[in-house]
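Note to self: keep these together.
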Amino acid sequence: MENSYRIEGDTLYADSLGEPFDYWASEDWRHEIRRAVLAEGITAIPSGCFQYFDGLEEALLPATLGEIGSSAFADCPRMGDPVLPEGVTVIGAGAFQGDYSIRRLVLPASLVRIGENALYFGDESRLLSIEVAPGNPAFSSENGVLFTRDKTRLLKYPSAKRKAEYDVPETVKSIADSAFAHSRYLHRIRLPEGLLTLESGAFSFCSHLEELTVPESVTGIPSYAFFCCERLKKLTLPKRADYLGFESVCNCSALEEITLPEGITQLDYAAVGGNPRLRELVIPEGVTELCNSALIDDTGLERVVLPHSLTEIWDNAFRRCTSLEEIVIPENVRCIDDEAFINCKKLRRVILRTGLISDDGWLPEELRGRVEVIRER
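Structure:
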């Protein structure tokens, strides 16, 4: 079904919607639209319908509306606080993603599903509060923070909420994907004992977060968990967590010390990369692989202790670790990629305790003749 609409001045009046507005065909006028008025009788807004309407400030939604499609209002940076009518049951994935001017959301009692990143507004987010109408069977809110109805899952902490500290309720067992992302006023977050799961990017871009302890009940640290927490000084991870996702503790420019979980078996892509104040790192026993770029750009790293369990060191694992002068390669290592130590400008001594590598072909061309390789077996 094609859209039926008219434009008067800076207002778009829609009588019916069946597809997204064509990105190229609407280029001459979609930037000028400030207001969208949707007629009664419209029950759904198609996926991507108003995406990139970068001048849109207000959308008047009909009482008949039941579903807001994925990315329906995404990338509308001037969008004000939407009034969601009672009767809306679904907000699709990314529906309001990037709409950083939204300050307050009130979710209707009828809402039962919110898609991934529907309320992800980015680093300029002005979101102060999310409220849920009484009687909603799926969601609840407390002090402007969004939870599932039973408060076992924290879904969204408003990024612009002006609080320096926050205690996650004891009922919470899971922190959702990007739940605290871009929360720029928080300095400390206290997590409850009994918390089980962190999801991807849970605390990413928390630019003022200084300290966090992840309780022992958490079984793994997902990708991007603490990505770009640039003031994070102290991070305590659970000892027995069994995985550390890619870029999980990455680009934390104030981090000086970290103890890695004992249960991990590999360091994934840039898992502990881009931390220039980190001086020493002990890789726990049980780790068999340093994956691609595992410790990339740890420019202050002076000492690394590798475990006896290690068997493989992949490309760029130590790339631009420019303070590293000496390293001991343990006895079970059977593979070192020839780009593992690229741009390690101060590296002068490698003690090779493995008999499984017969030549020095793993040493980058730029370091040959400058690095002493000592074989100890």
